[in-house]
Amino acid sequence: MFWKKLKVLGAGSYGTVSLAAPMDGSSTFTAVKSAEAKDSSSLSMEGGILDALKGSPYVVQCFGEDVSVENGKPTYNLLLEYAAVGTLHDLVDIYSKSKTMLEESEVAYYSFQLLTGISHVHRKGFIHCDLKPSNILVFPTIDHEYDSIVDVRLKLADFGLSLRAVENETHTYWDRGSKKCRHNRGTLLYASPESIACGIHGKAVDIWALGCIVVEMITGRRLWSCCEGIDDLDFKITHEQPVIPSNVSNICKDFLAKCFEKDYNWRWTADMLLTHPFIKSATSSSKYHPKDHGLMISNRVIINPFSQYRRSWVSKQHLFSTCFQVPSNDNFGIFPAENAQSSKLACN
């Protein structure tokens, strides 16, 4: 089966993300991250990480990879699950624009999902390093009989900056925007004090970022949105205590205090936070219990649309090719998961 990229959904330092569908006209859609093959090392590494993380219902599913010749250039494609609704950032923005906010019980339920995904990532030996609402995908479950949303599944995505979990390892990075060497890896608004001050990236950086996300879900605003610039933001994160919303319960305040512990050695882990009363209150409620809505089907592994053999990972060639001349395999590099399988050339 040959595929076609229908439109560009977004772009970043890695390349582009496109919506793709089979050329036979079926209604199957996927998201495809793409970069020129010569610049695809980061994207290929992300594919390897997602392959290692497969099996969690709270981490976006990666179906495999493809190398095609597109507009005369060898292009590396990462084949991903498509979230038609968008991201958690989009969801929070919808509530904010309607001048309503998520209920605390909803925030707790979404926090449970995020923590379950983070726990899985950490157990597999990785640190996400760039958790934020725009890197969390939203997958609603529809009750077609009543045409209503009965559950929302959140999935961690965008592992392009992820690291192997080596506790207390220090890092320094060149920031192209500010043209300075920086310690933190990821988006500054969600960075932890130790990552900014010392370049330390342990599992605790993901927990600090989770706290920032929870505050954003509650208030509709980013935690440090009032800062006047990068230097001001650096100073406040490293020297000031985050302001915990006053209009929440005491157990929610305590949960956030555990996330925002300045000393990363004492910050609670994902598994510890899953036992916190704030999370337990959400998972014990029938309102947010998947079994009560008949939603356990959403935990099943999605059938790989790129594999007729139902394999969880595939390596392909020319799914999206737009030319008739097929270069030699030597021009494509090496797939991270397994050797490429040849297929016929698709022409638009």
Automatic annotation (TrEMBL):
State the family it belongs to. Belongs to the protein kinase superfamily.
Keywords recorded for this protein, A-Z: ATP-binding, Kinase, Nucleotide-binding, Serine/threonine-protein kinase, Transferase
Q: Name one GO molecular function term.
A: protein serine/threonine kinase activity
InterPro entries tied to this protein: Kinase-like_dom_sf, Plant_MAPKKK, Prot_kinase_dom, Protein_kinase_ATP_BS, Ser/Thr_kinase_AS
Q: Which organism is it from?
A: Nicotiana tabacum (Common tobacco)
**Which SUPFAM superfamilies does the entry mention?**
Protein kinase-like (PK-like)
Q: What is the lineage of its organism?
A: Eukaryota, Viridiplantae, Streptophyta, Embryophyta, Tracheophyta
Residues of the Protein kinase domain: 3-279
Positions contributing to ATP binding: K33
Provide a GO biological process annotation: signal transduction
Name listed for the protein in its UniProt record: Mitogen-activated protein kinase kinase kinase 20-like
